[in-house]
Amino acid sequence: MERSPTRDLIVGIFVLAGIAAIAYLSISVGGFSWHGRAGLKLYASFEETGSLTVRAPVVIAGVRVGEVTSISLDDKLRARVEMNLDPDLKLPNGTYANITTAGVLGDRYIELQPGGGGGTLKPGDTITNTADAVSLEKLIGQLIPGANTGANPGPMGFMLSASFDETGSLAAHAPVVIAGVRVGEVSNIALGTDFRAKVDMNLAPDLKLSVDTFANIVTSGVLGGRYIELQPGGEDQMLKSGDTISHVGNAVILEKVIGQLIYGLTKESKPPETQPSTTPAPVH
């Protein structure tokens, strides 16, 4: 069969178009889809960032005006988020920064709501009015009684442990985070002599955690993987390497929550049992 130069040219064009489309999708998914000008660098601190990541969008009224450039811990163990925005933006000092989610299962992003205050934010300023990411597991824990009982993290070596009644699908190498910033990982999970799950954590050695620090097992989104979230307390005494965190929150198991709800509804709808009469029958 004789080769056709025209046909080979058409096939080649289609192949190049396919490669270009794949490259474009890869770049877009990687977070480089914003084509606006950057230059206004602002900061905001949050107690909880959820699954917010670098290159997450920053929007105003649904319009993308920048992106997240870095997430780190500040000296108060809060998540310090750096944003690179359009330099033409004139944001009032009272601007509000809110971490929200695109739909129920979507990615996190930052929404800016320009406020009233006098003057405008300058490069390097910090937005002080913020709202943390909403954690679905914490909401479930508040609604269901008894639900709560009690990136590369860098160099590690600060060893802590915690025991849980329920770990769910938590596994070794799962992240350990503070305010959404990864500070270590789970190194081992074993059954203790008290029949509770003993979880060992390998953390960054420069962490300063008080003895009333709270360790909670949560999930990344609705269907994501399990990880441990540490919430530093206010005591002056600090945990030492090898110590055990005593304040813990167990993993919330969706099936158990649904089972409790169904059982509660069934129990409420069931008619009360008729007690047998103790009155003697009349004698004829």
Compact overview of the structure:
With 284 residues, the protein is an alpha/beta fold.
Description:
The protein has 284 residues and is of the alpha/beta class. The chain folds into 2 domains: 40-133; 138-266, no CATH class. Helix content is 17%, strand content 32%. It has 3 helices and 16 strands. It has helices at 5-29, 136-143, 254-269, and strands spanning 40-46, 57-60, 63-73, 79-85, 96-101, 108-113, 126-127, 129-131, 158-164, 175-178, 181-191, 197-203, 214-219, 226-231, 244-245, 247-249. The strands form 2 sheets. It has an 8-stranded mixed sheet, with no helix packed on it. Strands 15-9-12-11-10-14-13-16 form an 8-stranded mixed sheet, with helices on one face. A hairpin with a 6-residue loop joins strand 5 (96-101) and strand 6 (108-113). The radius of gyration is 27 Å and the shape is globular. Mean pLDDT is 78; it is low at 27-33 and 141-150.
List keywords for this structure.
single chain, about 280 residues, alpha/beta, 3 helices
Produce the secondary structure layout.
Layout: H1 5-29, E1 40-46, E2 57-60, E3 63-73, E4 79-85, E5 96-101, E6 108-113, E7 126-127, E8 129-131, H2 136-143, E9 158-164, E10 175-178, E11 181-191, E12 197-203, E13 214-219, E14 226-231, E15 244-245, E16 247-249, H3 254-269
Parallel strand pairs: 1-7, 2-6, 5-8, 9-15, 10-14, 13-16
Antiparallel strand pairs: 1-4, 2-3, 3-4, 5-6, 9-12, 10-11, 11-12, 13-14
